Every structure is written in structure tokens, then in C-alpha cells.
Amino acid sequence: MFSYQHGFHAGNHADVLKHSVLLALLDALRRKDKPFFVLDTHSGDGLYALDGPQAARLGEYREGIARLWATRGLHPRIDALLDAVAAENPDGELHRSPGSPRLIARRLRAQDRLLAVEGHTGVFPRLCEALRGLPGARAEHGDGYRALKAHLPPGCGRGLVLIDPSYESRDESARVNAALTLIHKRFRQGIVAVWYPLLPNKPAQPWLDAVAALGIPDILRAELSVAAPSPARGLYGSGMLLINPPWGLEPQLREVLPLLHARLAADGAGYWRVATLVDEQGRRG
């Protein structure tokens, strides 16, 4: 447990998908003046040096954000991601990649709040540093799943829960499902976003079937695969499970994902998918 270090994978294709969707969710929340609360259950470092020893070791960002870096005008949502990354690289060179808590913190208005939870003792100080000086953002050391019970529902009644675990624990999917059930009971109107990996030796479909059976309505799935499944490669894509997706998000994803696939996929391999898992009436999509 806690052996995973996201710094080795920062800026890869999975980050591109996750952060593109995350920014779209935050911008949807910002459309109303009312305050919102974000709980990031597995926050990580918050900010990553792409030329540092971890990211440079595997260089996964070269097949992710680096393939988009010099591109503008493909789509406003892709531009929003590039602008967020550019804010961390004022010299115009791609040296640093923001993690989800820093992306969220920079999107907060004066009335909004972020709680970024991280359980890894070695990572937590780096998270605190990444959020230093960003108003409305607070870091907490602990179990992100336990934080759900402690901090939901938020007093403002609006917000987002981001669940992005490493999936290194055998019972991680069960813990995610228990978390989704808890959120549905305590914060039914909230938006929930869950990142999940696409791995050749662990199909996502059985877990998605289990989620569909939880009795939670209005669930959308978005997946981006950039290569054919291969044990030699490992992670060949990822997905975002979205509960209560805001109005207009689905058509945006249907525009953005094929553009990302065209830029990130190896020789056109892989696929993109946007599909209803459970509709608003609770029926399986």
C-alpha cells in the first residue's frame, strides 16, 4: 500500500483525459455564482516536475501532454487544459505539469473551497507546498474515503467529489463502490468523477457492471484508449465515470475525445467512447 508515485506518470495520456474532464466540470460549476466545494480524495503531489527524476525516468508525458503542447485551436476544452498547464510554465517550455488539486485550486473563486486529501506521508508535504498561497484550498493528511463521511454534505450544497485512487489495493474497486453509495446517500445532488484504468489483465467491465447495479441514476462513462491491450505496455487507456454530469458535458466529450485520440493514439490504435452507463431514470444504458 502507498507504493504508487504518480510523479512517474505525470502528464501522460490518462492525465490528459482526467484533467480535460475535470476542468470541464469545474467550469460548469462556475457558471452559477453560488459557492461550490470540491473534495479530492487522492490528491497526490499537486505539481510535478517533468524534467525531474521521476517523470523523466519513464517520460510518459512525451506521449501525453507534450503531444498537445504546441497545439492551439483544436477545441476550447483542449485549449483550457493547455492554458492551465501553461500557467505553470511561464517561460513557454514544458517543464511542469499540475496535478488535480492544483488545477482545482486555480479554478476556485473567492467563495469556493477545496479539500485535498492525501494519505502518503512522503507525498503530503509536497501537496501542501503545491497549494501554498492558493486561497480556498486546504490539504489534509489521511484516508480520502474516510474524509467523505467527515465532510459531506458540504454546507454550500453544491460541488464535486473527485476519486482518483492508484488501484494498487485488491479491494480498491469495492472501496470505490462503497464510497459511491455513501456519496449518493449524503450528497445526492453532487457531481462525482471517478478515474479508472484500462489494463490488459484487469477488464473494467465487471466493475462498471457492479456500479450500474448500485441503484445510482445518471451515470456517464468516457474512455480514451491510445494503444491495443498488451501485457508489455500495461496501461493502454483510462476512463472517467461521471455521476450527475452537468448539462452540456456529454456533447463536449463527444467532440473532444476523438481529437485527443487522433493526437495521442499510437498509429491510430485504441478507441474513444462516451456512453450512458445508467440514465436519469435509473435504467442501464
Automatic annotation (TrEMBL):
Enzyme active site: 164 (proton acceptor)
Protein residues bound to S-adenosyl-L-methionine: 19, 42, 100, 118, 143-144, 164
Keywords from the UniProt entry: Methyltransferase, RNA-binding, rRNA processing, S-adenosyl-L-methionine, Transferase
Superkingdom classification of source: Bacteria
An example molecular function term from Gene Ontology annotations: 23S rRNA (adenine(2030)-N(6))-methyltransferase activity
Keyword Nucleotide-binding: no
Record-marked site positions (Interaction with substrate rRNA): 4
Primary role: Specifically methylates the adenine in position 2030 of 23S rRNA.
Protein name: Ribosomal RNA large subunit methyltransferase J
Organism: Acidihalobacter ferrooxydans
